[in-house]
Amino acid sequence: MALAMQLLVCALAALANGGQSAGSAPVADHGALPGQDAPAPPPDDDRIVVTGRRGASDIPPEIELDADAIDALGAYDIGEVIQRTARSNALGDDPVVIVNGQRVADPGVFSRFPSDALVRVEVLPREAGARYGGDPSRRVVNIVLQRRFRSGDGQFDAKAPTAGGMSGLSADLRRGAIAGTSTTQFGIRASRDSALLGAERPHYLEDHPGYAAASLRPSAATLEANLALTRVLGRWSTSLNVQGQARSDRSISLSGGAPIESRHTTRNLVMVGGLSGSLLGWSLQASLTGQLSTASQQGLADTGSRQRSLATALSANRPIFNLPAGPVLVNLTTRASFSRTTSLGAGPGRTFSARDVNLGGTVSLPLWRAPSPGHGSAIGRLLGSMSATFGGTLRETDAGRGKGLNAGLIWMARSKLRLIGNWSTSTDGVSDAQRFAPAYYGAPITVFDFATGESAQVLPILGGTADLLPPRFDRMTLSASAGPFPPWSLTGNVSVQRSDAVNGIGSLPAVTPDIEAAFPDRFQRDASGRLTIIDRRPINFRSTRSESLASNVSATFPLGGAKPGTLRIAINHNLQLRNLTVIHAGLPEMDRLAGDGGGAPRHQLEVQMDGRSGPWGVNLAARWRSGYRVRRDTGRDGPEDLLVSAIGTVDLRFSYALARAIRPDRDGAASRRAIGTQFGLDIDNLLDARPGARLGIQGPAPGYGRDDQDPVGRTIRLTIRSRF
Prior knowledge:
Layout: H1 2-14, E1 63-65, H2 67-73, H3 78-88, E2 96-99, E3 118-123, H4 128-132, E4 140-145, E5 148-161, E6 168-179, E7 182-193, E8 196-197, H5 202-207, E9 215-217, E10 219-233, E11 236-255, E12 258-279, E13 282-298, E14 303-323, E15 326-345, E16 350-368, H6 378-383, E17 385-397, E18 400-414, E19 417-427, H7 432-436, E20 440-441, E21 445-449, E22 454-462, E23 472-485, E24 490-506, H8 513-518, E25 523-525, E26 531-535, E27 539-559, E28 565-582, E29 590-591, E30 603-613, E31 616-625, E32 628-630, E33 642-644, E34 647-657, E35 661-664, E36 670-673, E37 678-684, E38 693-695, E39 715-723
Parallel strand pairs: 2-4, 22-26
Antiparallel strand pairs: 1-3, 3-4, 5-6, 5-39, 6-7, 7-10, 8-9, 10-11, 11-12, 12-13, 13-14, 14-15, 15-16, 16-17, 17-18, 18-19, 19-23, 20-22, 21-22, 23-24, 24-27, 25-26, 27-28, 28-29, 28-30, 30-31, 31-34, 32-33, 33-38, 34-37, 35-36, 37-39
């Protein structure tokens, strides 16, 4: 299958100079990156030229970050801008990213460019998921790049907790250039964090005598490099993205009272080739991904693995015909991957192979369209616009077959009010890491052991589980969004989500007597009964059900004065309504919110503030979660239950730029180029909050002392950035 997809990509490139249908818009014809305007006609050309906003998508944005708002984020690169935007606006973990209003095969080629390579960032309304990604449940972010940009950047930072005991250093060098249709970016990054030992935390040693030489946090050294290119090949836009990483972790644990050093090393090389363009009226994006990786551990156990994988993806979309309310859009996707993993160790090596083929398609139907302002009947204006999306998937893996269906309905009752409903059923795949990663010991962790009523520093066994089954999900979401409303671009969202899973994948919850009795081979104790090892490799859960209510509100406030700026505030709240799990048929249903299976907080709240005025910048992230109960015995409260306290943390960052130069771009957008050095001061966990818990009515719980769950605490980071 992978070979067939490679041949298809080559065939598309061969057709680049032919087969172009009327009405299509190949990227190369624009003389710029996808979505950029075509060159202006000569002055003596008397044709009437109509141009839109450069880089705009087909759907007006729900939220827009201009130059000032992007600068206020204080982000180092475009990837961080997208991540921060997704988090502050509750877009989910994997939004679809389009570039200059168009889909591209690999938007990751732009993620390492400096943030000031952006003109603006647009968060599109929920209906954009069906148009640009084929999945109505995913949000879409449009990044608009400068026409021309060139920079060389360096960043150096040093960090250390205020309690001392460890430190970290990192350095980053990169160069990037955008010149119309061509972009080039490459960089190298290195970091090193020292270990934190028990001897450096007196409070920890009071509760855990004899663990002075044990690692509370491992030392780590990382080296990364990347190269990203985009070029035009005939009528097609091509991309190449190469990333390499080497990482080594070192930790010390106790075995039989004696310290044992363990080293875990990983090396990874990923290459992604992309091809985008138009053919016979279809907008096409194809990619080919190859990956080589190795992992090894020496010390407690000598294990290792070597993995090779190849994956290809092809997506095609176009309008197929018009209805009175608008065009009917079709999205087709196909993905195929093959991997081979070889385990290495003291015994004979074993080789595992895996394949995954996925075919999917969606159809977007405009049901009716609101009349233009000043036209149509009152009923028509009241009904607004409505569209529907229907899709399906077929999946075949070596672990089994599956199929999926999805449907979405979007009602835009007013220009700034949207009501959305999504439903889907699908069989997801199991990643190679979840199945074939070799077993290894992770860094020591501190847990509370209900069997002994004491805390224990244990070694977790991590890695994959070869016989995992593909999980099946049924999901439903009802949501409403409103905005943006002037003068502060106020937007709000609220959504109700429900998810049911069969064979969901996760690790074992808290160490309770019921869990240990059901999985005795996953817990190891020494001769005195002290817990020493927990096997936390993934397992299939028989069933899970979760229901939640999520809300988000954001606004942007202009700051006046001699040095104008901007302040953006976003608030997210998540309320868990239900969280039920059945691990297997021999165990009763666990109500996580009541305290079964390790418990779960009912409320989570996050506030983000990003502001900039002249050379000064400030960023604040405050997070809070409610307290919860961890039951000793499933199904009933008891005096020996663990009562985990609520906790709130605050991260604060100040920045100052020595100099800035601003010149207008051709379309009036500011080309932001920082020429001077920038200084940053980050204070993570400003209030030095630590997780805490009580054991019923008996007082503080073992394993929840000041340095048990978070021995690092408040951390200070100093950053220097400079452009050369």
